[in-house]
Amino acid sequence: MHCWGEIPLPTSARNKSTEERSQLERNISAVSAGRETVAFVQKDGKGFFLFQGGNRGDKQKPRAFTLGKDRIRRLSCGESHIVLVSQKGKIFQLNCQESPSIPRSLNLCDKEVIQIACGDYHSIALTKVGQVFCWGQNSSGQLGLGKKVPSTSNPSLLWTLAEIPLARVAAGGGHSFALTLTGVVLAWGRNSKGQLGLGDVENEYFPIAVKSLRQQKTVYISCGEEHTAILTKGGLVFTFGAGQYGQLGHNSVRDELWPRLVAELWGAEVSQIACGRHHTLAYISSLKKVYACGRGEQGQLGSGMTCDQYVPLPVQELEDCYRSHCIERITAGGNQSFVFCSAVQTFKDSCIWTEDIICTLDDKLISKWVSKCDSKSWNTIKREINTIFSSASCLNGSFLKQGHQSMPDKLSVDLSLARLSFEKLAKEEKVMNKVESVVIEKLVPSLLPLVAGTEGHGVYLILPELMRVMTTHENCRDLSFAFASAVLRLHPPCLATLEDIWSKLPDTFFKSLVKVFHTVSTRYLHQICTKMWTQCSENWDLFTKTVEVLQKLYEVNLRAGRKIDDKNFYISEVKLLFQTFNKIHPESMMLLVKNGLMCVYSLTAYPCILDMDTKCLLFKSYIYIVIEQNAYHPIRHNNLFVNRSSLLTDTIKQLRDVPRNYSWPLQVKFAEEYGIDYGGVSQEFFSIAAKELHSARPTMFQFFEDSRLVWFISNGCDLDMFYLLGVLYGMALYNFCIMNLQFPVALFKKLLGIPTTLEDLEELSPVEACGLKDLLAEDEDFVEELYLDFTARGHELVPCGREIPVTKYNRQQYVDAYVHYVFNTSVQKEFDNFSKGFSAGCPNTKWKMFLPGELMAFLTGNINYEWEELRKNAKYKSYEPTDENIQNFWSVFTELSEQQKKNFLSYMTGSDRLPVGGLSRLHLTIANANKADPDIYYPVASTCYSILYLPNYSSIDILREKFLHAIKFYEEFGEA
């Protein structure tokens, strides 16, 4: 070891002969120096230190210290304290001002320590399982525990870094750093000189990423009193912080608030760096030279002089060493510098010792566990499994992508490696059982609601891969529930980050993630279905946790543009569960509603598991249950009395003038017409109302010729009309009727609180959308030549929009503002009133479980006419399918034009549009009218029950004549 600077060795050593002094230096294995303290560890595991504070006459006297039977492995010095690590990973602290100097054991919850770092008055320790403990002063936030946390002499867990795989910790005078395995630099503490590299001089009380270093692959950090140096994988050195002595190496004494490359060292690959209090060392192995810069008052630069150096220069005192020895490592302290040399090249050019790395899982370790689990090594294997699988940090560090540089928009986890590793582990049940128990009992409960950075989220991607190979294990249910609970405990910003990571997963892994939660949720629900309700409340609690995570994955899938098909989320057991409750005796209905069925309807909070049919079933059944709950009271109706010729006017007047409860079932009565409304009359009412509203569209709607769709128009029209229109539309939904107002999907997105996009404008107004798409696709230099400004349809999209030209830089903002104006700004009052009316007209809020397209299909029906389904599902009363009259009917029906078939549909149901499910859900019944002289009668349709009363005609010609006349004038031949 070579050393220079202020009192690097005691006087007794200096007075020895050169040979004796060399022997003493060779016997030293580790050294550290603080502002007032220099400490050494000898190769026999004992140590001594020199304390320069207090009585200056004592500063030359070395004071020995030991750890008893244990050996000292590491040490680090603060201003007047020394932190020691034993060979067994135990940690001790020695106060240099106390006499005798006896190291005090510190409690780190029996964690094995692999690294330590001391600032002037604080200390940091990194454990084998990746946890960071801090203690000492916290006046500037150097403990990273928050501004309000007081200084402490007891090590405290730095919880914000608990799940991040760390490579190294470092400490300066009053600031601290941590380096992740992927090269992210985290800083906290005093920042008065910019020593945190954040571009300001504000102290940080929690670890924060140094974003300016994200592009660099940092491999080492060293701190001085008020400056910091970092070394990249490519051998570049960046420095920042205080520069008054030239310690930054930039040929100036200016402070640097941002990391700045040391240009004088550029071109040669730096192998190691070390910072003293006000100086910096750098070792270039290819040149076999150590360079120094900064303060030289105490000779710490090794130049033979005591002046400062503003640029890194070779250390002159090592000229002889360069020729005869190889440099192993360099160290700098308060005002000292140390170089460890060897006659033989034994030290690899690396700044991170392999024994300093946190525990991680690799293929070699897996092979050992699987092959030796039945041998005497089992106890050792159990300890290793417990170490790795109880720590999120260790797991996160086990499956990092090779050469990955952590960036906010990139995934650092190698999921293929994780999948392969767990598949190997699953081959040995004994090992897998131990892994499962550790994960369930220790790892998952330790996961924190707050996660710092994207790297800490890795465990939330890794554990599902473990759950994937555990699907046949009984413990998989317990782990799924515990893991789902951990996900749902995450604070909203952390959960949002996880969801963003999910959205970026490759489709294969995203589908696998969904399958894990889908499988477990299905099992829970199956158990609920096969047990009495009173026995399955626990399973219900388990189910709601896992299905809530499944719902979040579903929402991520939607936002990501449907990475996988919606059917991957559907759980068919929901229908079984619903049927199970419906089979219970009606007398138990009220108890059922109170104890169970309402929980079944709570499934609407998780629409991802419901296909369209199930959603419709739940929506309708919920309304029936609400009516059933009022069974002890006279059933009231929401009555409307209208004339066909003035239907819309009559309706608006009654809705406006007559108070009503929209939760009561609708009953429509046409003036001077016979019929009781069991649904068919209501459907016909809404069909006619829709037609009349279309004829009134110039006052309320803008009609788009290119799409044949309508949108609201703001022309000073009575806003109450939009409210009543919303009421009418909501009533149609509440009463399961189709009402096609030719709105785009955008309306239903807005009702559901989903933002509209350019694609929605493309549906409503293809011409406008095409122009905007062309604008985004235009050559950048051509955009300005279009002479556009921030206006649309004569209105400013933003304040002073006419004065803001559209350029290649703001064209996306222009397009977004244009879409926002069309769907929101221009019709805000009209839509708000419509939306309020819609919610009033449909008091069953379960409609919110539908997706926009599903809600649109429910309300407007569809036009996928598969006419063969009508005959396939037809039933007969007083007829047989082989009867001549029935055969003639279907022959005539086949001859009909498409429009005539639609007229028949209106004739039978009150609407020419199909309900959800199409014609397969329309169960037509053809009944014999049983007339004495059938040839003089026309067919009659019961729209409420889809029954066609068909006289038994004597010939196909008479059937054709009567049938065609009936569907041509269908409004006159229907009955309720």
What can you tell me about this protein's structure?
With 976 residues, the protein is α+β, with helices and mostly antiparallel strands. It folds into five domains: 2-342, Methylamine Dehydrogenase, Chain H (7 Propeller); 369-567, no CATH class; 638-756 and 826-860, Alpha-Beta Complex (Hect, E3 ligase catalytic domain fold); 768-823, Hect, E3 ligase catalytic domain (2-Layer Sandwich); 868-975, Hect, E3 ligase catalytic fold (2-Layer Sandwich), CATH 3.30.2410.10. The strands form eleven sheets. A five-stranded mixed β-sheet has the order 34-35-37-36-38, covered by helices on one side. Helix 12 (507-529) runs antiparallel to helix 13 (537-559). The N and C termini lie far apart (104 Å). One of its GO terms (molecular function) is ubiquitin protein ligase activity. Pfam families: HECT (PF00632), WD40_RLD (PF25390). It comes from Scleropages formosus. One of its GO terms (biological process) is ubiquitin-dependent protein catabolic process. Residues 654-976 form the HECT domain.
